[in-house]
Request: fold
Amino acid sequence: MTLDALSPRSRARITAVDWSLLAADEGKRLRALGIEEGAEVTVAHRGVFAGKDPIALTVGRMTIALRRAHALAMQVEELA
Reply:
């Protein structure tokens, strides 16, 4: 499942990221924020626009906004 398919308040672990789908500078920024394989994230909430963009993620003690296009590049496993 990709990260964009998670429901609000769902917890997951990122299992893979297809970095080739992201621009090099975007990938670098996401890694600096802790968004990489093995990271545990929680979907805090989704945007109100038609595509449910952006997605707010909690990573550790940070909440960051992530575009749906970026979330499509990330494979996750949902945590209980």
Q: What stands out?
A: The longest helix spans residues 24-32. The domain at 3-79 is CATH 2.30.30.90 (SH3 type barrels.). Helices lie at 24-32, 68-71.
